[in-house]
Write a structure and sequence with these properties.
The chain is built from 35 helices and 17 strands. The chain is of the alpha/beta class. It has five domains: about 5-100, no CATH class; about 115-280, P-loop containing nucleotide triphosphate hydrolases (Rossmann fold); about 285-465, 3-Layer(aba) Sandwich (Rossmann fold), CATH 3.40.50.300; about 535-680, no CATH class; about 685-744. The strands form four sheets. It has a seven-stranded parallel sheet, with helices on both faces. Strands 9-16-15-12-14-13 form a six-stranded parallel sheet, with helices on both faces. A two-stranded parallel ribbon has the order 7-17. α29 (about 630-665) packs antiparallel against α30 (about 675-680). The longest helix has about 35 residues, at about 630-665. The chain is globular. The N and C termini lie far apart (about 55 Å). InterPro entries: DEAD/DEAH_box_helicase_dom, Hel308_SKI2-like, Helicase_ATP-bd, Helicase_C-like, P-loop_NTPase. This is DEAD/DEAH box helicase. Keywords: ATP-binding, Helicase, Hydrolase, Nucleotide-binding. It comes from Rahnella laticis.
Length: about 750
């Protein structure tokens, strides 16, 4: 067979749905022969998936398909067919059994694919490896294989989001809890004689390393490693890059993984002796349909279904999801939170109410709002998902979407919040827009990550991707991950001050020395600025000078556990003026009126600790946002971005700067720990802080707090949960208990 003809013949077979079995047989014989050449591998896997997806019952076709699967070394395709309803029962030879055994671990009994085994073997040789491979490739499966085959004592797995962290935590806890203490909390007691698998976000890992300065990591993993790229210029890349730098420099073995990365900082790899492997094999194949509502109007064939594309994206969406020939669940991407919710709500009128999770609906009505459109959506098998939503609600939504029963969600509208490695059962992905949150055109990496959600290994051979707008064919496909202190011509001081002195070289060294000399003149110690990680350095210096020269320290001084409202306002005000960036303020809290609103809401939250519904219905929030959905989004964002993240970070920085100046002036120091805990966790009790750090929402934490009163770390929480489970069950609903099971 001429390789160029494979796609043509495959399309003909798909059109007839494989009814001409002699044609399918000849095609599979040719694929079997082509598998002799590694250069044809990806194309052959594509053909295998498409034929397998037809679910043909012909015995000869099944035997030939089996033979191709064995030769491809993706043995789990056979398991998928055995679990289908086509009576798949090919003849299995002793050679087939031997080959599968060769790719099956004697330790974990896991069967690897050919590319997975190549990665595992490479790691065992080099111990420092970066792997770029598509979604559903099984990169994380290799982590478990590495752990099983090596004698590591302290293992750290860095995940980009709390949702992905929770999913991985449950998997590793189930597999490795006999040997390791498996934890996803930074509030854990590290004991020298014990062995650990710690699954943490970069932020939690930073806290853990700060609290355990002598902790020795033997092996670490970072998922979605592209998030360390300084070109992202977001709020998190420096935290990712800092953890990557510190763990890599420690000498630990490492396995860095991410999808669709064309290159990873050559300077960084050379400096730390890291090898990179790149794969483009799609274990779950994708069919792409360009249904641009402007340039692709007319009739389109989708696996035998006829769809007419018109000049209205919403009508096109209805036609696709309304066609019974296009099976599977739908993930529908929109680039803004409001658009996600609006489109989900618009679909409400098209569907009938169905069996739904009444316990989840009751939980959301009670703890968020009865008028939230998500409540109405769930009743009709629709949901939405975006980054402003609390993590536990995001996870509950994914659980509903992943249900195989008729009760779950069939249509999930989302932003990029769902593209960072979170597994779902979507067979169909619709890119309703080709933009990102700021309205710019979507970049190749983001788009591929969204496309990668189509189809899930062990459930689908194929996923479908629908574009509702035109794709630019000339777009730059390169996704080169670059590390700021290595690859940027002008790295920021916030990055440089965190580096080991020996790693600041060349032009960076010259600029850094000028900065150090200026600090000496200003009599500001470097450790002061360095301790306030990634807080704007010019803002910190301005705060020191302001407190020295203009500041009446009495404006900020208090000796009680919590300052009065006037003093807290003074503290928040100077932080806003000198440490907040324009990006921190955003559109909601810029200018004097915006500042006043933010400070008032923060004081309200600190002094009254309102529940979510009470904060949602406060006068200020009602004034700032007129509709229920927009108020809910605003309140989510207010809590997660400002109260739990931004204010604690900046208040800690203010405290250290104030106390430095107070010591200079022979004045008394202050402690803002109580305020920080109230904002970050909603409590100041240590056992409740541990529960909140594990991901337990405030409303559940309050119900069970007394049970965990004597707990001093995450291990204590886990042990108490096991021993007093019956008592806890009586206090919680089914949904609340499910949250507790997932996070503890």
């Amino acid at each position: 067979m001429i390789i160029e003809n494979i796609d043509i013949e495959l399309e003909e077979i798909k059109k007839t749905k494989g009814r001409e079995t002699n044609v399918v047989e000849d095609f599979l014989i040719d694929i079997y022969r082509l598998l002799d050449n590694n250069e044809n591998y990806n194309l052959c896997v594509k053909a295998i998936c498409h034929i397998a997806n037809l679910h043909l019952e012909d015995a000869m076709v099944q035997q030939l398909l089996h033979d191709c699967i064995i030769k491809s070394r993706i043995f789990l395709y056979d398991d998928m067919l055995e679990n289908s309803e086509i009576g798949y029962n090919p003849s299995v030879s002793p050679q087939d059994i031997f080959l599968k055994a060769f790719y099956t671990s004697s330790v974990s009994e896991t069967t690897l694919t050919k590319p997975q085994k190549e990665i595992f073997n490479e790691f065992q040789t080099n111990r420092r490896l970066i792997v770029s491979a598509p979604t559903s490739f099984g990169k994380t499966r290799i982590i478990r294989e590495i752990i099983s085959h090596n004698d590591y004592k302290m293992i750290v797995i860095i995940m980009p989001t709390v949702s992905l962290l929770s999913e991985s935590y449950n998997d590793f806890k189930q597999e490795f809890s006999d040997r390791y203490i498996v934890s996803k909390s930074s509030k854990i007691k590290i004991e020298e004689e014990k062995e650990y698998i710690l699954i943490l976000t970069p932020e939690r890992m930073s806290v853990l390393m700060q609290d355990n300065v002598h902790m020795n990591v033997d092996f670490f993993v970072m998922d979605e490693i592209y998030k360390a790229d300084y070109k992202l210029n977001d709020d998190r890349f420096r935290v990712f890059a800092d953890i990557l730098y510190r763990l890599t420099r420690s000498g630990a073995d490492l396995y860095l993984i991410g999808p669709y990365i064309s290159e990873f900082s050559e300077g960084f790899r050379n400096k730390f002796s890291i090898k990179m492997l790149k794969f483009d094999i799609e274990i779950v194949q994708k069919d792409y349909y360009e249904l641009d509502y402007i340039n692709q109007r007319g009739i389109h064939n989708i696996e035998g279904a006829t769809i007419r594309v018109v000049g209205d994206k919403y009508k096109n969406l209805k036609r696709i999801i309304g066609n019974e020939s296009i099976d599977g669940k739908y993930l529908i991407y929109r680039y803004r939170k409001q658009y996600v919710e609006d489109l989900a709500e618009r679909l409400l009128g098209e569907l009938q109410e169905k069996k739904h999770n009444e316990s989840l609906v009751e939980y959301l009505e009670s703890n968020i709002s009865k008028n939230w459109s998500l409540v109405k959506c769930l009743k009709k098998g629709i949901a939405f998902h975006h980054g402003a939503m609390p993590r536990h609600i995001q996870d509950l939504i994914i659980d509903e979407f992943n249900k195989s029963s008729g009760e779950g969600v069939n249509y999930l509208f989302c932003t990029t919040s769902l593209t960072e490695g979170v597994n779902s059962t979507a067979k169909n992905v619709v890119l309703y827009d080709l933009k990102i949150g700021n309205g710019e055109e979507i970049k190749s990496l983001d788009r591929k990550n969204i496309e990668g959600r189509a189809g899930r290994f062990m459930q689908h051979f194929l996923g479908r991707v629908f574009y509702f707008e035109q794709i630019e064919k000339s777009e730059n496909q390169n996704t080169n991950v670059e590390i700021e202190f290595i690859d940027s011509g002008d790295p920021k001081l916030e990055t440089l001050v965190q580096l080991n002195d020996a790693d600041i070289i060349g032009a960076n060294r010259v600029e850094y020395q000028k900065f150090i000399e200026n600090l000496l003149k200003l009599k500001i110690p470097l450790d002061l600025l360095k301790g306030n990680k990634f807080v704007d350095i010019s803002g910190q210096i301005s705060m020191v000078e302001s407190l020295r020269v203009n500041g009446n320290l009495d404006k900020y001084f208090f000796s009680t556990q919590i300052p009065d409202k006037g003093i807290l306002e003074n503290i928040l005000s100077i932080i806003y003026d000198l440490l907040f960036t324009e990006g921190n303020k955003g559109g909601s809290f810029s200018g004097e009126i915006g500042k006043k609103n933010l400070l008032n809401l923060t004081k309200y939250y600190v002094y009254l600790t309102p529940s979510f519904p009470v904060l949602l219905n406060s006068d200020t929030v009602k004034f700032l946002r007129k509709t229920e959905n927009s108020r809910i989004r605003f309140t989510f964002d207010l809590i997660t971005k400002y109260f739990e993240f931004m204010w604690p970070r900046y208040i800690k920085a203010f405290e250290s700067i104030f106390n430095f100046v107070a010591n200079e002036k022979k004045s008394k120091e202050i402690s803002l720990d109580y305020i920080v805990s109230l904002l970050e966790y909603g409590t100041n009790d240590s056992h409740e802080i541990i529960l909140r750090d594990a991901g337990i929402p405030r409303e559940i934490m309050k119900k069970i707090s007394s049970v965990f009163y004597n707990c001093e770390n995450h291990q204590d929480i886990q042990n108490t949960f096991k021993s007093r489970r019956l008592e806890i069950i009586k206090k919680l609903s089914n949904i609340e208990l499910r949250i507790l099971d997932k996070y503890i």
